[in-house]
TrEMBL record:
InterPro entries in the record: GrpE (IPR000740), GrpE_CC (IPR013805), GrpE_head (IPR009012)
Low complexity: bias regions: 31-56
GO process terms (BP): protein folding
Subcellular location: Cytoplasm
Signal peptide: none
Protein name per the record: Protein GrpE
Native source organism of the sequence: Halogeometricum pallidum JCM 14848
Region described as Disordered: 1-70
SUPFAM superfamilies for the chain: Coiled-coil domain of nucleotide exchange factor GrpE (SSF58014), Head domain of nucleotide exchange factor GrpE (SSF51064)
Length: 236
């Protein structure tokens, strides 16, 4: 009897390895689960990489990282990254356009400065020419005055002086120069008349009594105001 029981016990121990230490069995199961989890993670990473590659997201670590957790998030990140690249390209293009505009502005400013210099030079030339022409005509008047003075002392030079004055007035008129010579009783114009004093006169009070010195104006610009006296009205 004892000889028959022993072989059966040995056979049972050899056929069921789980009847050993429970801790060993638990460690073996944990290793198996870890291996399976690692395989699943590897498969997930491979799938994410495949999806990223299919969506044109390769080469961007941020997109690849997002793809490990959420494919839609990876697509959004890739879209934002693409938009950022587009904006950077647009910014670079805008910088180039801005630089070109600045260069054009500088060239325009330089051209304008050159134009101003040429215009000023032209104005100076015109002014010099106009002055020369005016002087040529004025010296003729002086020549006439000299000839009048060269006559005998007893000669009547008044007709010659009057003729010279008329010629001089024609020269002034050709330059749009006129005299300011108000009549007595005319209202005082502060822009054209310079009041020297107030005098008793039979003219209305506050009006021109007499002209002390005529003035001149060119066009609408007063060259010299006429010097006048103003009536107090006491002489009426």
């Amino acid at each position: 009897m004892p000889g028959e029981v022993l072989p059966r016990i040995m056979t049972e121990d050899a056929s069921d390895p789980t009847d050993g230490d429970p801790a060993d069995a638990e460690r073996e199961q944990s290793a198996t689960d870890a291996s399976a989890t690692g395989a699943e993670a590897t498969d997930s990473e491979a799938e994410a990489a495949s999806n990223a590659s299919a969506n044109g997201q390769t080469g961007d670590p941020l997109v690849a990282r997002a793809a490990e957790y959420d494919e839609e998030l990876a697509e959004d990140v890739a879209a934002l990254r693409g938009r950022a690249d587009e904006l950077e390209a647009e910014l670079a293009e805008a910088d180039e356009e801005n630089e070109e505009l600045e260069n054009r502005l500088k060239r325009t400013q330089a051209d304008f400065q050159n134009y101003k210099k040429r215009a000023k030079k032209r104005q100076d030339q015109i002014r010099a020419t106009a002055t020369e022409d005016f002087v040529e005509r004025v010296v003729t008047v002086r020549d006439n005055l000299v000839r009048a003075l060269d006559q005998d002392e007893e000669a009547d030079i008044r007709p010659g002086i009057e003729s010279t004055l008329e010629e001089f007035d024609r020269i002034l008129a050709s330059e749009d120069v006129g005299t300011i010579d108000p009549d007595p009783g005319e209202a005082v114009d502060p822009t054209r008349h310079e009041v020297m004093m107030r005098v008793d006169s039979d003219q209305p009070e506050g009006t021109v009594a007499d002209v002390y010195q005529a003035g001149y104006e060119m066009g609408e610009k007063v060259i010299r105001a006429a010097q006048v006296t103003v009536s107090t009205g006491d002489g009426q």
